[in-house]
Amino acid sequence: MIASSVTTPRTRSGLNRSARIIGFAVGAIVVYVVLLWLALQVVDGFAPERALPVAIQQTINALSIGAIYALIALGYTMVYGIIELINFAHGDVFMIGAFLAVVLTGGIFGQTGGVKDVPFLALLLLVALLFVMPLTGGLNVFIERVFYRPFRHASRLAPLITAVGVSFILQNLALLVAGSGDRAAPQIFPLDWQIPFGGAEISVLSIFIFALALVLMLLLQTFVNRTRLGRAMRATAQDQQAASLMGVDLNQTIALTFLLGGALAGAAGVVWGLRFGFVRQDLGFNAGLKAFTSAVLGGIGNISGAVLGGFIIGFIENFASSLGFSRWSEFLVFMVLTLVLIFRPTGILGQQLGDRA
Amino acid sequence: MSATNGASGEAMLVIDGVHTYYGQIHALRGISLTVAQGEIVTLIGANGAGKTTTLKTVSGMLHPRAGRVRFEGDDISKLPAHKLVERGIGHAPEGRRIFPRLTVLENLQMGAFSRRDVKDLGPDLDRVFTLFPRLLERTAQLGGTLSGGEQQMLAIGRALMSQPRVLLLDEPSLGLSPILVQQVFETIKDINRQGTTVLLVEQNALQALSIAHRGYVLQTGEVVLTGSAESLRQNETVRKAYLGED
Fold first, then answer.
1. Is the domain defined by A21-343 classed in CATH 1.10.3470?
2. Does the complex come out with an ipTM higher than 0.85?
3. Per-residue confidence at A353, pLDDT binned at 50, 70, 90?
């Protein structure tokens, strides 16, 4: 049969591509460790033998923060890729996710601190993700259905302004229910689980967050690249009319995109509480802005770009705070964004959702 | 009905007094035509006569404001495009509209999107690759990197992947070299012989009439002339206006 020979070349090039990406990632991490190591010696005047362990510890923290931004950024970028809308309410969907996780672990399960019983902890985390992700995904689908779809054929400004409005609605709902100010989030993942490492301590939570994000991203990538519906999503992002001529239901595909983006934001919300120990109604504005910046930096509409951008922002922030300049981290983040956009207006990878992730 | 499928009832595709608008523009002004099972029917006419609009109205990309489109007896005038593919209407649209950043294979797989129950696309892919061997050499290449001729083959092949009972082809020869044009028309004849009904829109009226069974001449959104392909080729007006003869 002719067609049976068809899949072979694609698989091979796919393997090459994964190898290149892993190579790039490992290389970038090593470069960051070295940079930080050198900078720490200059700035902090650390004992030279302590600088490297601290640099490694901080790099792992950077990866966990970057992973959170990347998870949120994916929702911005996928929605933009498919309907060219900046979903300003997306950060607030993340915020709702963080609150829901608190409601579940604190309210329903009555946890207040670290859970040392590993199987129980694993179960709690799993339940939290399985509880929050469908809810934030569903919320995002609801937002699209009620607030954005009626403006599908209106000027682009109309849904954009609506998105800002939805953002306010969600923030004020949170304010109404939870009140203003910080609410404690139960840090069920024990913070004192640290791996001692040459005078530094590596946070197991950071490793967990990074690993979880990686798994979710790989699942997303597999879905987008390898499944019938993922292919339909990419086709829709490239040419909506042609996709509908193939039998793709645009409403369904757009809803699916919001579902996935919302679910990933929910996962980010769950781990946010674990890491920072508080939630607040304006969380979505701050983290959302960083995640949005990540998406733009990597190339809005581009899935790989959102992940890349998220980690870059995580590294920049971490670099500043590791050297004691955390107040400058936002300045640095937006300076890098500005510079990238001056020289590469479409962002670093700058293509569209239609591409393989 | 003038052309029927021979047995009882009406033709496979019936367009009945259709008025279609592009915003304010009244593009189709009461068009009626039929396509019977197994036929190749061609629409000829100048730019802006309404040929493409007619195809779009059939495939659900546009909806008629008045009149009806019936396919295999059902009124499909109000159905969205994605539902019509499932019913057996395949449309290779104007400008090819292949997915530029999907591979050739993925483009073909998208063509079969509506057939969700089919696990193995092998036989369908084989059929397309037999018609267009060039595509087999290019399966892993992105659609946007193909030459114009290859893109046209891909657009037709992709439409075939839905196993349409009627295939709507919009200017399949546009921008192709004379040899390729010949090839594409041969392929359309093959596809038709294999049992697919074809509604063909062409600028190249002479070629179209040489493979079609019947034709309709459109002018500013109306049918001005119809008949067998042979009779249209002999027709004085057609020869002057569309076949480039004096």
1. yes
2. yes
3. low
